[in-house]
Design goal:
Largest sheet: 6 strands, parallel
Radius of gyration: 19 Å
Helix content: 25-40%
Number of helices: 9
Bound molecules: adenosine-5-diphosphoribose
Strand content: 15-25%
Number of strands: 9
Structural class: alpha/beta
Length: 253
Protein backbone atom coordinates (compact mmCIF):
# COMPACT_ATOMS: atom_id res chain seq x y z
CA UNK A 1 0.00 0.00 0.00
CA UNK A 2 1.46 3.40 -0.96
CA UNK A 3 0.98 6.72 0.81
CA UNK A 4 -1.51 7.88 -1.82
CA UNK A 5 -3.83 4.95 -1.03
CA UNK A 6 -5.01 6.84 2.04
CA UNK A 7 -6.88 10.09 2.37
CA UNK A 8 -5.04 13.10 3.68
CA UNK A 9 -5.78 14.67 7.03
CA UNK A 10 -5.75 18.36 7.91
CA UNK A 11 -5.63 19.21 11.63
CA UNK A 12 -6.44 22.76 12.74
CA UNK A 13 -5.23 23.54 16.25
CA UNK A 14 -5.85 26.48 18.57
CA UNK A 15 -4.84 27.65 22.01
CA UNK A 16 -6.86 24.89 23.74
CA UNK A 17 -4.34 22.23 22.71
CA UNK A 18 -1.56 24.06 24.58
CA UNK A 19 -3.63 24.89 27.67
CA UNK A 20 -2.62 21.73 29.51
CA UNK A 21 1.03 22.58 28.78
CA UNK A 22 0.56 25.72 30.88
CA UNK A 23 -0.05 28.31 28.16
CA UNK A 24 -3.04 30.65 28.32
CA UNK A 25 -5.92 30.54 25.88
CA UNK A 26 -7.45 33.81 24.67
CA UNK A 27 -11.20 33.75 25.23
CA UNK A 28 -11.69 31.51 28.26
CA UNK A 29 -12.58 33.27 31.53
CA UNK A 30 -8.89 33.20 32.56
CA UNK A 31 -7.68 33.87 29.00
CA UNK A 32 -5.33 36.56 27.69
CA UNK A 33 -8.07 38.75 26.24
CA UNK A 34 -9.70 38.98 29.68
CA UNK A 35 -6.54 40.72 30.94
CA UNK A 36 -5.40 42.89 28.01
CA UNK A 37 -7.29 44.48 25.15
CA UNK A 38 -6.61 43.24 21.62
CA UNK A 39 -6.55 46.89 20.42
CA UNK A 40 -3.70 47.64 22.83
CA UNK A 41 -1.33 44.80 21.98
CA UNK A 42 -2.29 42.84 18.87
CA UNK A 43 -2.93 45.23 15.98
CA UNK A 44 -0.62 47.17 13.62
CA UNK A 45 -2.16 50.40 15.01
CA UNK A 46 -1.24 49.42 18.58
CA UNK A 47 2.34 48.79 17.44
CA UNK A 48 2.57 52.16 15.68
CA UNK A 49 1.10 53.92 18.73
CA UNK A 50 3.12 52.19 21.45
CA UNK A 51 5.74 49.73 20.15
CA UNK A 52 7.27 49.27 23.61
CA UNK A 53 3.98 48.07 25.06
CA UNK A 54 3.41 45.64 22.20
CA UNK A 55 6.99 44.34 22.39
CA UNK A 56 6.54 43.96 26.17
CA UNK A 57 3.42 41.84 25.70
CA UNK A 58 5.22 39.46 23.32
CA UNK A 59 8.45 39.50 25.37
CA UNK A 60 6.48 38.23 28.37
CA UNK A 61 4.79 35.53 26.29
CA UNK A 62 8.15 34.52 24.75
CA UNK A 63 9.74 34.16 28.20
CA UNK A 64 6.67 32.18 29.32
CA UNK A 65 7.05 29.81 26.37
CA UNK A 66 10.73 29.09 26.98
CA UNK A 67 10.09 28.38 30.67
CA UNK A 68 11.30 24.82 31.32
CA UNK A 69 7.91 23.94 32.83
CA UNK A 70 6.16 24.44 29.46
CA UNK A 71 6.44 21.20 27.48
CA UNK A 72 4.42 19.50 24.73
CA UNK A 73 1.54 17.45 26.17
CA UNK A 74 -0.08 14.15 25.21
CA UNK A 75 -2.25 15.83 22.55
CA UNK A 76 0.75 17.38 20.74
CA UNK A 77 2.57 14.04 20.95
CA UNK A 78 -0.42 12.13 19.60
CA UNK A 79 -0.57 14.37 16.52
CA UNK A 80 3.15 13.79 15.89
CA UNK A 81 2.47 10.04 16.18
CA UNK A 82 -0.37 10.41 13.66
CA UNK A 83 1.96 12.09 11.16
CA UNK A 84 4.53 9.30 11.57
CA UNK A 85 2.03 6.45 11.43
CA UNK A 86 -0.65 7.53 8.94
CA UNK A 87 -0.02 6.27 5.39
CA UNK A 88 -1.42 9.47 3.81
CA UNK A 89 -0.42 13.09 4.35
CA UNK A 90 -1.06 14.71 7.72
CA UNK A 91 -0.84 18.51 7.77
CA UNK A 92 -1.17 20.50 10.98
CA UNK A 93 -2.35 24.08 10.49
CA UNK A 94 -1.93 25.83 13.80
CA UNK A 95 -3.17 29.21 14.92
CA UNK A 96 -0.75 28.90 17.83
CA UNK A 97 2.48 30.86 17.84
CA UNK A 98 4.12 28.48 20.34
CA UNK A 99 6.53 25.74 19.17
CA UNK A 100 4.98 22.81 21.05
CA UNK A 101 3.94 20.90 17.91
CA UNK A 102 7.48 20.90 16.53
CA UNK A 103 8.94 20.03 19.93
CA UNK A 104 6.55 17.06 20.05
CA UNK A 105 7.90 15.91 16.68
CA UNK A 106 5.42 17.24 14.10
CA UNK A 107 7.14 18.19 10.85
CA UNK A 108 4.39 18.96 8.31
CA UNK A 109 3.21 22.10 10.06
CA UNK A 110 1.97 25.54 9.06
CA UNK A 111 1.98 28.41 11.57
CA UNK A 112 -0.77 30.51 10.01
CA UNK A 113 -0.51 33.20 12.73
CA UNK A 114 3.29 33.27 12.83
CA UNK A 115 5.81 32.15 15.45
CA UNK A 116 6.66 33.68 18.81
CA UNK A 117 10.28 32.50 18.66
CA UNK A 118 10.93 34.43 15.43
CA UNK A 119 11.18 38.12 14.64
CA UNK A 120 10.84 39.94 11.32
CA UNK A 121 12.44 43.09 9.98
CA UNK A 122 9.83 45.37 8.41
CA UNK A 123 12.55 46.96 6.26
CA UNK A 124 14.22 43.92 4.65
CA UNK A 125 11.59 41.24 5.62
CA UNK A 126 14.30 38.99 7.04
CA UNK A 127 12.91 36.45 9.54
CA UNK A 128 15.25 35.36 12.35
CA UNK A 129 15.05 32.96 15.30
CA UNK A 130 14.78 34.96 18.54
CA UNK A 131 14.53 33.90 22.20
CA UNK A 132 15.46 37.12 24.02
CA UNK A 133 13.45 40.20 24.81
CA UNK A 134 13.06 42.48 21.80
CA UNK A 135 13.15 46.28 22.08
CA UNK A 136 12.92 49.17 19.67
CA UNK A 137 16.64 49.69 20.38
CA UNK A 138 17.63 46.49 18.54
CA UNK A 139 19.03 46.82 15.01
CA UNK A 140 18.33 44.27 12.27
CA UNK A 141 21.32 41.96 11.90
CA UNK A 142 20.76 41.70 8.17
CA UNK A 143 20.12 45.27 6.97
CA UNK A 144 21.34 47.18 10.04
CA UNK A 145 18.21 49.35 10.41
CA UNK A 146 17.11 50.41 13.86
CA UNK A 147 13.56 50.07 15.18
CA UNK A 148 12.32 47.84 12.36
CA UNK A 149 12.22 44.51 14.21
CA UNK A 150 8.82 43.16 15.28
CA UNK A 151 7.49 39.81 16.49
CA UNK A 152 6.88 37.43 13.55
CA UNK A 153 3.22 37.11 14.45
CA UNK A 154 0.03 37.97 12.56
CA UNK A 155 -1.93 40.75 14.23
CA UNK A 156 -5.64 41.47 13.87
CA UNK A 157 -6.15 43.21 10.53
CA UNK A 158 -3.19 41.40 8.91
CA UNK A 159 -3.32 38.52 6.44
CA UNK A 160 -2.61 35.04 7.88
CA UNK A 161 0.32 33.20 6.31
CA UNK A 162 0.37 30.40 3.70
CA UNK A 163 -3.34 30.66 2.88
CA UNK A 164 -2.91 29.21 -0.66
CA UNK A 165 -1.26 26.07 0.71
CA UNK A 166 -3.90 25.77 3.43
CA UNK A 167 -6.83 26.14 1.05
CA UNK A 168 -5.39 23.53 -1.30
CA UNK A 169 -5.00 21.08 1.58
CA UNK A 170 -8.52 21.73 2.90
CA UNK A 171 -10.16 21.15 -0.47
CA UNK A 172 -8.35 17.86 -0.98
CA UNK A 173 -8.53 16.38 2.50
CA UNK A 174 -10.56 13.34 3.54
CA UNK A 175 -10.62 14.28 7.21
CA UNK A 176 -10.59 17.69 8.88
CA UNK A 177 -9.95 17.76 12.62
CA UNK A 178 -10.40 20.97 14.59
CA UNK A 179 -8.80 20.88 18.06
CA UNK A 180 -8.85 23.43 20.88
CA UNK A 181 -10.17 26.46 19.04
CA UNK A 182 -13.20 28.58 19.87
CA UNK A 183 -14.02 29.32 16.22
CA UNK A 184 -14.09 33.07 16.71
CA UNK A 185 -11.31 34.12 14.36
CA UNK A 186 -11.47 33.95 10.56
CA UNK A 187 -10.22 32.62 8.24
CA UNK A 188 -9.54 29.59 10.47
CA UNK A 189 -13.14 29.57 11.73
CA UNK A 190 -14.29 29.10 8.11
CA UNK A 191 -12.13 26.06 7.32
CA UNK A 192 -14.86 23.59 8.28
CA UNK A 193 -17.18 25.22 5.72
CA UNK A 194 -14.50 25.02 3.03
CA UNK A 195 -14.11 21.28 3.64
CA UNK A 196 -17.88 20.79 3.60
CA UNK A 197 -18.26 22.74 0.35
CA UNK A 198 -15.51 20.68 -1.28
CA UNK A 199 -17.70 17.71 -0.40
CA UNK A 200 -15.03 15.10 0.38
CA UNK A 201 -13.84 15.37 3.93
CA UNK A 202 -15.33 14.16 7.18
CA UNK A 203 -15.26 16.96 9.79
CA UNK A 204 -14.57 16.50 13.50
CA UNK A 205 -14.37 18.96 16.39
CA UNK A 206 -12.42 17.97 19.52
CA UNK A 207 -12.71 20.72 22.11
CA UNK A 208 -13.38 21.36 25.77
CA UNK A 209 -16.80 22.79 24.89
CA UNK A 210 -18.80 23.46 21.72
CA UNK A 211 -17.12 26.14 19.59
CA UNK A 212 -18.94 28.93 17.75
CA UNK A 213 -19.16 26.70 14.67
CA UNK A 214 -19.86 23.43 16.45
CA UNK A 215 -23.04 22.67 14.50
CA UNK A 216 -21.09 22.70 11.22
CA UNK A 217 -19.10 19.59 12.17
CA UNK A 218 -20.26 16.09 11.29
CA UNK A 219 -18.83 14.74 14.55
CA UNK A 220 -18.02 16.41 17.87
CA UNK A 221 -16.34 15.25 21.08
CA UNK A 222 -15.93 17.38 24.19
CA UNK A 223 -13.30 17.11 26.93
CA UNK A 224 -9.64 17.98 27.58
CA UNK A 225 -7.37 17.65 24.56
CA UNK A 226 -4.96 15.35 26.43
CA UNK A 227 -7.80 12.81 26.80
CA UNK A 228 -9.57 13.19 23.47
CA UNK A 229 -6.71 13.55 21.00
CA UNK A 230 -4.61 10.48 21.93
CA UNK A 231 -7.73 8.28 21.95
CA UNK A 232 -8.91 9.66 18.59
CA UNK A 233 -5.46 9.18 17.03
CA UNK A 234 -5.24 5.60 18.33
CA UNK A 235 -8.57 4.72 16.71
CA UNK A 236 -7.54 6.40 13.47
CA UNK A 237 -4.20 4.59 13.31
CA UNK A 238 -5.80 1.23 14.11
CA UNK A 239 -8.27 1.79 11.35
CA UNK A 240 -5.69 3.26 8.92
CA UNK A 241 -3.52 0.18 9.22
CA UNK A 242 -6.39 -1.95 7.99
CA UNK A 243 -8.12 0.43 5.59
CA UNK A 244 -8.33 0.39 1.82
CA UNK A 245 -8.74 3.60 -0.24
CA UNK A 246 -11.72 5.59 1.01
CA UNK A 247 -13.40 8.60 -0.56
CA UNK A 248 -15.32 9.80 2.47
CA UNK A 249 -13.97 8.22 5.61
CA UNK A 250 -16.73 8.84 8.12
CA UNK A 251 -16.05 8.75 11.82
CA UNK A 252 -13.37 6.41 13.11
CA UNK A 253 -14.87 3.19 14.42
N1 LIG B 1 -8.60 20.95 25.80
C1 LIG B 1 -9.32 21.26 24.71
N2 LIG B 1 -9.85 22.48 24.48
C2 LIG B 1 -9.62 23.43 25.40
C3 LIG B 1 -8.88 23.18 26.58
C4 LIG B 1 -8.36 21.87 26.77
N3 LIG B 1 -7.64 21.53 27.83
N4 LIG B 1 -8.85 24.32 27.31
C5 LIG B 1 -9.55 25.23 26.63
N5 LIG B 1 -10.02 24.70 25.47
C6 LIG B 1 -10.82 25.33 24.41
C7 LIG B 1 -11.74 26.42 24.91
O1 LIG B 1 -12.98 25.85 25.33
C8 LIG B 1 -11.90 27.30 23.68
O2 LIG B 1 -12.99 26.88 22.89
O3 LIG B 1 -9.93 25.97 23.53
C9 LIG B 1 -10.59 27.06 22.91
C10 LIG B 1 -9.65 28.24 22.92
O4 LIG B 1 -10.24 29.32 22.24
P1 LIG B 1 -9.51 30.73 22.11
O5 LIG B 1 -9.00 31.16 23.43
O6 LIG B 1 -10.43 31.64 21.41
O7 LIG B 1 -8.22 30.40 21.22
P2 LIG B 1 -8.14 30.23 19.64
O8 LIG B 1 -9.39 29.67 19.08
O9 LIG B 1 -6.87 29.52 19.35
O10 LIG B 1 -7.99 31.73 19.18
C11 LIG B 1 -7.81 32.00 17.80
O11 LIG B 1 -7.44 34.29 18.34
O12 LIG B 1 -6.58 36.12 19.45
C12 LIG B 1 -6.38 35.17 18.56
O13 LIG B 1 -4.45 35.02 17.38
C13 LIG B 1 -5.09 34.45 18.47
O14 LIG B 1 -4.64 32.42 17.30
C14 LIG B 1 -5.51 33.03 18.20
C15 LIG B 1 -6.91 33.19 17.64
Amino acid sequence: MTRTDHFSIVVLTGAGISKESGLDTFRDADGLWARVRIEDVATPEAYRRDPDRVQGFYNARRQGLIDAAVQPNAAHRALARLERGWPGEVLIVTQNIDDLHERAGSRNLIHMHGELLKIRCTACQDVTDWRDDLTTGHACRTCGQLGTLRPHVVWFGEMPLYMDDINRALIGCGLFLSIGTSGNVYPAAGFVQEVRLAGRGHTVELNLEPSEGATLFAETQYGPATDLVPAFVDRLLDRGAAASPIESPGPPA
